[in-house]
Amino acid sequence: MNILNSMRSGLLICSLGAPLPLVVQAQPAQQTQQTQQTQQAQQSSRAAAARDGQHDFDFEIGVWKTHLKRLVHPLSGSTTWVELDGTTVVRKVWNGRANLAELETDAASGHLEVLSLRLYDPQSRQWSLNTANIKSGTLSVPTIGEFKDGRGEFFDQESFNGRTILVRNVWSDMTADSCRFEQSFSDDGGKTWEVNWIAIDTRVN
User: Fold this and answer.
1) pTM of whole model > 0.85?
2) What is the C-alpha to C-alpha distance for residues 160 and 133, in angstroms, rounded to an integer?
3) Distance between CA 86 and CA 70 in Å, rounded?
4) Cα distance between residue 97 and residue 143, in whole Å
5) CA 37, CA 35: separation in Å to the nearest integer?
6) How far apart (Å, rounded) are the C-alpha atoms in residues 205 and 92?
């Protein structure tokens, strides 16, 4: 009887114990794979965060012919646009970590001069775009953002006609000899955007 019990005990131990080394061996391999995937994700994240964008506006340095379309009364339901032609001159400041753009146009609606100071923050790796026109003589609330995949997007929150709105500036279609700029307003928290300023630049020099 003791012999039979011993045999049963031995069979039970073998049946329960034999798979254990396989489980123990499988766990380190799985953990190693997960660790490698985590490390790769962290490296990719660090590489993206470490991108230096201080020369992102270098494409715009120079003299440009600007064709401008402006919505006369934004966020009012109006569809009345005016078109102007002018010149934009963009100069480097601080070896490219900042630049100054000056737009000047003349049209039947009057003379327009706009200045834009773009500043690069090496800590956040973002740009702030600060704009003023000759009539006000003061800088606007800066839009903040960056370039990704050939497109620059910049946002701010400010007051317009007594209401708080969102402002979005977008650079796109950038080549060595042309680029497109759009400004849009949103009064519903960014659910919808109304474009009110479109500038198409063609390089002169």
Assistant:
1) no
2) 16
3) 13
4) 16
5) 5
6) 14
